[in-house]
TrEMBL record:
Catalytic activity: L-homoserine + acetyl-CoA = O-acetyl-L-homoserine + CoA
Protein name (database record): Homoserine O-acetyltransferase
Family to which the UniProt record says this protein belongs: Belongs to the MetA family.
GO molecular function: homoserine O-acetyltransferase activity; homoserine O-succinyltransferase activity
Keyword NAD: no
Recorded metabolic or biological pathway in which this protein acts: Amino-acid biosynthesis; L-methionine biosynthesis via de novo pathway; O-acetyl-L-homoserine from L-homoserine: step 1/1
Taxon lineage: Bacteria, Pseudomonadati, Bacteroidota, Bacteroidia, Bacteroidales
Site keyed Important for substrate specificity: positions: S192
Source organism of this protein record: Hoylesella enoeca
EC number: 2.3.1.31
TM region positions: none
Amino acid sequence: MPLKLPDRLPAIELLKQENIFVASRVHGGLQHIRPLRIAILNLMPLKVTTETDLIRLLSNTPLQIEICLMTLNSHTPKHTPAEHMRMFYTDFEALADNEFDGLIVTGAPVEMLAFEDVDYWDELTRIFSWSRTHVRSTLYICWAAQAGLYYHYGIPKYPLPKKMFGIFRQHTLHAQLPIFRGFDDVFDMPHSRHTELRREDILRREELTLIAESAESGVSMIMARGGREFFITGHLEYAPTTLDEEYRRDLGKRTDVEMPRHYYVDDNASNPPLVTWRAHANLLFSNWINYYVSHANDSIA
């Protein structure tokens, strides 16, 4: 089944070039089953890049999915044309009466600020609260994972002595969970962050289950409320070149830029990236949809 996307969304043509089957709302509306409704609250600066990365992964399922791109009233993106936002995004207040099968909240480049100092924190926490009664399962990514854990469970974040930047080997701690169906015992995950969560804080809260971690990059996945909430500290959705683009963007602009670890062939930045996370990224998003988002007989709240 195809994804149902807003007409003329740039990701449609980009993904068709990768032979990924997507459909506009006009085409998708001709099919006579209710699609799963997944909202994406995209807080990343480069909206089109993040849209494409997530839609690529959401396409890997036989279920029909309708994507709704959500934005905030209290924040105006600086790196995405206003016309793109008007055409493809709907603000939260206009969606607040709707129910969704799934919600994805992306990271944001604000991790060095205290949560309460983020200019859209009040509206964001209203969405976090709303998700508890209007969404079947929510996936929080990177900074959003830290923000969600802080808001819902009081888990703090901590500054790192240097950026956690690269591809890091993760270990599954609860391999029997459906989210890990088909996973190997270890899997790789991209990380790009200046702050961390600490294992002992997670384990102190009985509502939280630490389900994957790394000896090198620390806490990577937490589950709560029986899978109604997942918190992922890395970026399985990243395209192969994302860390390379970030690295070369920052070279010469800052003195603390280090090459992403375990990323380039032979750890040589003159070589191309070695992609080791794509299969597990597809599995994780498919499992999330199949086992946590698409439980048609479960109530949302």
